[in-house]
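Narrative progress, year one. The postdoctoral researcher (J.K.) led the effort to move from monomer predictions toward full complexes, under supervision of the PI. The following entry was the first complex the group processed end to end, covering 716 residues in total.
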Amino acid sequence: MRNVYFTPGPSALYFTVEHHLKQALKQGIASVSHRSDTFKAFFAEAESNLRTLVQLPDDYQLVFTHSASEIWEKMTDAFVAGKSLHLVNGAFAGKFYKVVKDLGKQADSVEAPWGELPRYAALPDTEYDLIGLVHNETSTGVKTPLAEIGRLRQQYPEALIALDAVSSLPVVDLNYADTDMVYASVQKAFGLPAGLGVWLLNDRARQRAMAMEQKGLLRQTLHNVTSLINQAKNHQTPSTPNILGIYLFAKVTGDMIDRGIRQIRNDGIYKAAIMYNMLDQHDVLRPFVQDKALRSDTIIVIDSGPRTHHLLDYLARHKMIAGNGYGKMKGKQVRIANFPTHSKEQFEMLADLIEKFK
Amino acid sequence: MRNVYFTPGPSALYFTVEHHLKQALKQGIASVSHRSDTFKAFFAEAESNLRTLVQLPDDYQLVFTHSASEIWEKMTDAFVAGKSLHLVNGAFAGKFYKVVKDLGKQADSVEAPWGELPRYAALPDTEYDLIGLVHNETSTGVKTPLAEIGRLRQQYPEALIALDAVSSLPVVDLNYADTDMVYASVQKAFGLPAGLGVWLLNDRARQRAMAMEQKGLLRQTLHNVTSLINQAKNHQTPSTPNILGIYLFAKVTGDMIDRGIRQIRNDGIYKAAIMYNMLDQHDVLRPFVQDKALRSDTIIVIDSGPRTHHLLDYLARHKMIAGNGYGKMKGKQVRIANFPTHSKEQFEMLADLIEKFK
């Protein structure tokens, strides 16, 4: 029996990936030119599938990068002329804030303790070019209620809203009118091998980047945002991309459409409920996030304290690989991914095991 | 029968890749954390294997990027405070030159027509921070004789020498004392799926980057050269990398060691000789590069003129996929990769087919 990975990312591959990888080898996908019609066809398929899967509005463009973390730098270059605001309640929100400051731009942050949400009702009365927030903090298991994102839009109508949905896309049902950019990694809820970032930008973001470029403020690189967008319009990339990754993305999003996004989302809610309900009644463990409205559906964090390594080892003996706490919480928490590839049966088995843990 | 890809990159996968990919799936390699000991172990294996394979001196460090083309930007940020010099005799040398200028740095270029070499004997008498040259121009099939690289070192002892070996590493037997950096893509002579760049830097380069950083001149990003080097020393990367790509790199370099680099290099010379000899005597085709000393062993460019599409189609009907000309030579030339994965038998068949072409 193979290990089942409940790690928050890289995580278990979507259950159809192995099949598609074998098909790709048969068809020589890794050898086709990224300038060929074959490549353009599966880039187009990837885009069209994602559009269908998450009901992406027409004014959003998909571009591929090599990772989500490089998008922070590209956003800073393209969109921050004055100042950015960052809602920081975990490691990843904090990393974007640090990138902006390290690049010599001005940035404000509103911080909240890990496990909580920044106070959206008490944000600075300042003009920002861009606001960065994390829908689903992979480090803490806190999700941002979607209504808060809409509230940001109302308070800062001029700012671009950049939403990190690294560990929740495509499971989360976003209102894309409340954001200008959404970005994700494929090695999390998409269930794909690491090495590809997904960046969705609307026309407003594109126009801001073009305006920056016209003013000579956009760093001119091969892979900056205007270059990525211009190439993506023709289902191309500025240089040789992770071709196999884009092919697998097209195929897996197609499989997810066939399964039905509503089904995937409902399954996710069911699996999260099993786990949180069990944890709420556990003898020695508890959910890290106290406020039930903030508990992530896709990243479930267990406050396991000194029992952390014992719990991880116990699960590993049963071929279930869970994640350690992130950063300062390493050795103090266990993180469990609840992604579309994790079946209800696997999750029930995992919850049963954890329930018996002492 | 599957197609055989003689395209210059992406090209045919190394013949063991399919096996290793299946093993990786069985072992859950795509799901392991990039902070795990498992990951560190195959990063270490990749480094150790490459060191053995190309006889890399101890003072060189291997870092992985997502592509070779992003290295141009990182080198500009890290090493060009004053001015760089670029020896431009094809598209890829020209792209690096353009990146430096686009980033607002000073750069000189010495240009040569496609198919020829810049005049190394008549270079500017100026001080440069960095000199960029291409060992093997993938766009033209011209190789730079290794003695010319040593001559550069003598003329510019202070400059860092950055050698693009994108389509010749690990086949070329470099003198690493004549360079400070060498970089390559894995989808060419390594025979791996695209989505990984290989960057070798010596201590001198590392110290220059640190000096730039101390002066506040190094752009502070998550993935700049000092961050990549510091992480690589612990067999780590700043953010989630192409984990599967690094695993496959470790395995394929191991296979190449088992086969023997001398054997690989001798096979390459034999295959190139077959092709060039046939082309020299062909009725309607000829090698693009006139000077035999400049003819690349790994990228063989055929001057096919108006017959280009006819030749490509003719080969494709025999399941042999060759590359079109690059950029301005599209539709006028055919490019053939001669990489370690291409067997002598495949090459003989290909040469026989081309010989019969009219």
